[in-house]
Specification:
Elements (H helix, E strand, L loop, with lengths): L1 H15 L8 H4 L3 E5 L5 E5 L7 H10 L7 E3 L5 E3 L6 H5 L11 E3 L7 E3 L30 E3 L4 E8 L5 E12 L2 E12 L8 E13 L5 E16 L5 H9 L17 E17 L10 E19 L16 E20 L3 E16 L14 E17 L2 E12 L4 E11 L5 E11 L3 H4 E2 L8 E2 L6 E12 L3 E11 L2 E6 L25 E6 L4 E14 L2 E13 L19 E13 L4 E12 L6 E3 L4 E4 L10 E10 L2 E8 L11 E3 L2 E2 L4 E11 L1
Parallel strand pairs: 25-32
Antiparallel strand pairs: 1-2, 3-4, 3-7, 5-6, 8-9, 8-37, 9-10, 10-11, 11-12, 12-13, 13-14, 14-15, 15-16, 16-17, 17-18, 18-19, 19-20, 20-23, 21-22, 23-24, 24-27, 25-26, 27-28, 28-29, 29-30, 30-33, 31-32, 33-34, 34-37, 35-36
């Protein structure tokens, strides 16, 4: 991986010599008038040119490259282009994931874990996965990989400071060997020590992608190779004394490294490698007068990923160890191979219709692959083959678009069924209305079905788990001035989750009062087990987003209300906690001021962002499983998070400076990301995004 990093630096050093600015910008000054819009983006109006020689005409043609010619694709052919503007949405996405954190509550250290404050089960993967869901927020799946088509080499640099001896760096370099072949290298590295003991985070991702299309445009080949690792030290959160000292705000403990944590030697690692290829052939020869396509294609994916949890010093926090084990070394692996053959028929009158057949081979196991069975009751692996029928249809006519998709399991022990439909209409004034409905039937992740650990109570085999069913309806209304209104309703049957279970000691246990059997709180011994909700869950969510401007000032608002209802569960001591818990209200407001300064050499953006959510029984983080478990002991929330930011844009460079969580200076220490895991203290962070165009 180090060799790849220096190879990327070598390419970067060459790309910097390309210069900054879109190619041809220096030449356009000779024959264009430049103006600047309210967002600081340069726009040009072409003057009547003088007569040019053939050589000068070729030079002008070469220099007439626009920003929208630098195109970014997904494997499903959705496209966008490089965006160098500076907006409030860019401020929201200036983080480790480069996504909006509105429904995510990050832990104190960058890249460790995220607690959820909202869900959309209709967008989750249909296939049963490895598990370790808390580590998969930063894991890039195959459909999320990006492909590029650029007229000249392009480099993007992303940099941001982290916590205590840490940095985030993300570099993408893309170019073409010819108009038919484009390639890209991506490297992302993160290392952050964190404020608390044994809480270091390290992330590394390398990816090479390419896109090829033959000169006659009949054959197309896409592909990528990806190697990712997410490594974390796990401290188990603050112990009871540490939580008390944190909440009281004792000045002697403002240095968080002196607070006591549960583990000081535990580590976790999620890693994966993937190779992917998609290629197809157009049977119909392309002609100017014929836009009909009849494609025959093939997709291939080969991926291996594993999750390990190690601790050189055993602890009784997760209960007793299996007899004979003195240290923890848990390892779960998943190997998966997918082959899909498909045909696609595309005309302007019928839209795009695709049908395919997919074979999925999955091998989920623990330790070494050859150790297939440890005992007759608890196997060591789950090995299956699925055969899936796929189909989707996309149609667009003027402002109306329609999309439908189908996936149906036709053989195999696992189910991955979904049927969905989406319709959208966009009015001439840019107002749009979108409605979506879907139904899915899927097998729970593998770690719900089978798990093996050196901890005695974290071993289970559940071959009789029911499939989780989700019915989803949603609508989305957008208006240029009034904002966006989004609402969805989901009905979830057999909701599968991890539940924090009670420890029931025996009279012969040495740590139990022999005269009266006492319940040991979960904070001392933390047990968890897979569970399915006895009743269907009704999950309703409505969100309103808007932006109102007055001169150089703007107010950007997002307000979300959500509710989960179900009949009373049969389990005892459930309290107000549901199998699925979310805050009832989640609010965010940004007050910003934007204008051009230094004779329009810089576009400045500054302001405050406030984020607040109501109290709820947030899931508890389990580092052994790398997942979250439902609990009904601790409420978190009801604390504001106020940030102050100053951002700037100079040509294609965006600069970001933020003072995060400034209200902690008022010494109200009631902020947590999960039970036992405090949220971030006040910190000042700097970052930039820099694009180089040759």
């Amino acid at each position: 991986m180090t060799q790849r990093f220096f190879f990327l630096l070598f390419l970067l050093s060459n790309s910097i010599t390309f210069g900054q600015g879109i190619p041809g910008a220096h030449y356009q000054k000779r024959f264009t008038n430049k103006k600047t819009n309210s967002a600081g983006i340069e726009i040009s109006s072409i003057q009547k040119p003088q007569k040019k020689t053939v050589k000068e005409k070729d030079s002008i043609l070469k220099d007439s490259i626009n920003i929208d010619m630098y195109t970014i694709y997904t494997v499903d052919r959705d496209s966008s282009y490089v965006d160098t503007t500076l907006t409030i949405q860019k401020e929201y996405k200036m983080n480790f994931l480069r996504k909006d954190y509105f429904e995510l509550l990050p832990f104190s250290n960058t890249g460790h874990a995220f607690n959820r404050m909202g869900y959309d089960f209709s967008k989750q993967s249909l296939l049963a996965n490895l598990g370790a869901r808390s580590k998969h927020f930063s894991y890039i799946e195959a459909p999320e990989s990006l492909y590029f088509k650029v007229p000249t080499p392009l480099t993007e640099l992303f940099y941001r400071t982290a916590f205590e001896q840490g940095r985030i760096a993300h570099t993408t370099i893309t170019a073409n060997l010819s108009p038919q072949f484009n390639f890209a290298f991506t490297y992302k590295g993160t290392r952050s020590l964190g404020k608390y003991v044994n809480f270091r985070s390290a992330y590394e991702r390398f990816q090479f992608s390419f896109k090829y299309q033959s000169q006659n445009t009949r054959y197309t080949l896409w592909g990528h190779y990806s190697n990712q690792s997410i490594e974390n030290q796990e401290n188990g959160g603050l112990d009871e004394e540490g939580i008390l000292l944190f909440e009281t705000g004792d000045p002697d403990f403002k240095d968080r490294s002196v607070l006591d944590v549960r583990f000081k030697t535990a580590e976790s690692l999620l890693a994966g490698k993937r190779s992917f290829i998609d290629h197809h052939w157009n049977i119909v020869p392309p002609k100017d007068s014929v836009r009909t396509k009849l494609l025959i294609g093939h997709r291939f994916l080969d991926e291996s990923r594993y999750y390990s949890y190690k601790d050189s010093k055993n602890t009784d926090h997760f209960g007793d160890l299996v007899i004979g084990f003195l240290k923890i070394n848990d390892l779960a692996k998943l190997f998966r191979t997918k082959n899909q053959v498909y045909t696609e028929f595309n005309t302007p009158y019928t839209g795009k219709l695709r049908a395919g057949l997919t074979s999925v081979q999955s091998n989920y196991f623990f330790g070494l692959e050859e150790e297939e069975v440890v005992s007759e009751s608890v196997p060591n692996q789950i090995k299956t083959t699925q055969l899936l029928l796929n189909g989707d249809w996309k149609f667009q006519w003027k402002g109306f678009s329609m999309q439908a998709n189908l996936q149906k399991s036709i053989s195999g022990s696992l189910l991955s069924d979904e049927i969905g439909v989406k319709a959208q209409y966009e009015f001439p004034n840019k107002t749009s209305f979108t409605a979506r409905a879907s139904f899915r039937n899927q097998t729970p992740d593998f770690n719900f079905q089978l798990y093996k650990s050196d901890y005695l109570n974290y071993n289970w085999y559940n071959p009789d788990l029911e499939n989780q069913n989700t019915t989803h309806f949603s609508f989305n209304f957008k208006h240029p001035q009034l904002g966006r209104l989004y609402a969805h309703w989901q009905l979830i049957s057999n909701y599968t989750y991890f539940n924090t279970t009670k420890f029931e000691p025996k009279p012969e246990d040495p740590y139990v009062d022999r005269e009266s059997i006492l319940y040991v709180p979960p904070n001392d011994i933390y047990l968890a087990a897979p569970q399915q909700a006895n009743n269907a869950l009704n999950y309703f969510k409505i969100r309103y987003s808007s932006e109102f401007k007055l001169g150089n000032f703007a107010m950007t608002n997002t307000a979300q209300y959500q509710k989960v209802t179900t009949e009373s569960e049969a389990s005892e001591d459930l309290g107000d906690s549901q199998p699925l818990n979310v805050p009832e209200w989640n609010l965010r407001t940004t007050l910003s001021f934007s204008r051009e300064i230094f004779k329009k050499a810089m576009y400045l953006q500054t302001g405050f962002t406030g984020h607040y959510f109501t109290k709820y029984y947030a899931d508890r983080y389990n580092p052994l499983l790398a997942d979250f478990t439902r609990q009904n002991d601790v409420l978190i929330g009801d604390f504001p998070r106020i940030d102050f930011f100053v951002n700037g844009k100079v040509q294609q460079t965006r600069l970001f400076l933020k003072a995060e969580h400034i209200n902690t200076l008022l010494e109200n220490y009631n902020y947590f990301s999960a039970p036992g895991y405090p949220y971030r203290d006040f910190v000042i962070r700097f970052g930039l995004v820099w694009n180089f165009f040759r």
